[in-house]
Amino acid sequence: MKIQERTLLIVDDEPDIFWVMEHLLKQEGLDLIRALNGQETLVAMKKKHFELVLLDAKLPDIEGLALAKKIKEMDSTVPIVLISGYLSQDDEIVQNSLSSGLISEYISKPFQHTEILNAVKNLLL
């Protein structure tokens, strides 16, 4: 399966972040669905299979890692990239989440465009 045939779920309540990711990833031929919060994410997960979830660490109704656990309960195989402006790669909670497989990758905000593209390509190819 080529990268162009994949559907990703972007979970972020900030329109600017979504716009940047949409601009980057649509150029790669990916299909994108957006969820603004945890509730929308769980509804989307029930309706469709996603090959990858890009997940903001702080949402209006739930913390990203708590939502990641719910996502994994619904689909244990979906890779999750956690994106955060307040956590760091070195934080114990991030390291534990990576080592346990709860999340597949971590990216700090503000991020470089190449960080998003590389994470997506590494996890999908």
The overall pLDDT average reads: 93
Number of domain units: 1
Oligomeric nature of the chains: single chain
CATH class: Alpha Beta
Distance from first to last alpha carbon: 8 Å
Under CATH, the topology is which? Rossmann fold
Percentage of residues assigned to helices: 40-55%
Helix/sheet category: alpha/beta
Give unreliable regions as ranges.
none
* CATH H-level superfamily title: Response regulator
The major beta sheet can be summarized as:
5 strands, parallel
**Total DSSP E strands:** 5
What is the string of SSEs from the N terminus onward? Answer: EHEHEHEHEH
From the coordinates shown, what is the CATH architecture? 3-Layer(aba) Sandwich
Strand order of the largest sheet: 2-1-3-4-5
Radius of gyration: 13 Å
**What form results from the Cα inertia axes?**
globular
Share in β-strands:
15-25%
Number of helices: 5
Overview of the molecule:
- Helices cover 43% and strands 19% of the residues.
- The chain is α/β, with parallel strands linked by helices.
- It has a single domain (1-5, 9-91), classed as Response regulator (Rossmann fold), CATH 3.40.50.
- The protein has a five-stranded parallel β-sheet with strand order 2-1-3-4-5, sandwiched between helices.
- Strand 4, helix 4 and strand 5 form a beta-alpha-beta unit.
- Helix 2 packs parallel to helix 3.
- The termini are close together.
- 30% of the residues are buried.
